[in-house]
Amino acid sequence: MFRKLFLLMLISTCFLFSQQTYFSMGYKLLLAGSLPGLDIVSDNKSLIEKEFESQSSFEWGLLFQPTYNVLFAKGDSFYNYTLLSFAFDFGYYNDSFKFINYNNKRTETHLFDSINLGLYVQTTFSSFFIGAGGGVKLALSGNLNYDYIIEVLNYDRLKSRFDDLYIPYIKFLVGFKHIYGFSSSSISFYFNYDFPNIKLKASYPDIVKFKSIDLGVELSYYVNFIPILYKEEYSDKKRI
After folding, report:
1. Contact, 62 vs 218, CB < 8 A?
2. Global confidence as pTM
3. Residue 7 CB neighbours (<10 A)
4. CA–CA separation, 118 vs 36, rounded Å?
5. Reduced 3-state DSSP string for 74-85
6. What is the pLDDT of residues 194-236, one digit of tens each?
7. CA-to-CA distance for 150 and 34, rounded, in angstroms?
8. DSSP β-bridge partners for residue 189
9. CA 159 to CA 84: how far, in whole Å?
């Protein structure tokens, strides 16, 4: 079994490296609507989910994405190609968790300023692409907004209020990508799920973790270090 798996990996690696490849750097703006939730464990029933009501809120991010691209097939236009991309996501993300707290009789918005680290794989067929990825967001600072009051929370204050200041996530994207040669651009719609991990210390002995479903739009621009799809014959057609 191990031998077959090793041979399959070896053949796949040789096949990938036999294709035309290039590197690119992506710059991504993420705009999303967040619908948060709470993962509550309450043995003594002192805390129940009905005491909180989720509210949608806005969040955003800015990512840098170094990418290794494998070109499997290309046609006679910028819209006819098959591309497999492997990327690393690095950047800033502003997570938002908004609730109506019926105990305190107020609306509370928890904002986390996070470093986003992740991996991403994308397949493009004739400008249409699908992608999937995952990673972790490391919360470094944040805000708590309520009753027209904004509490600014540095890392020490975050640690005094929350345990496990990181958010594991997965995401899925569908969209369209246009390659010009030395550059590319894309627009996509994405689904993101933040796993329940950050714990609210004030709820002790109950356990309250934040989670979220995000739906949004991703606008991307890429710098391609090799204009892999540019064909002289296509350029001639465009000039006619």
Report:
1. no
2. 0.82
3. 10
4. 21
5. ECCCCCCEEEEE
6. 999 888 877 666 788 889 999 999 999 999 886 554 444 444 4
7. 20
8. 174, 217
9. 40
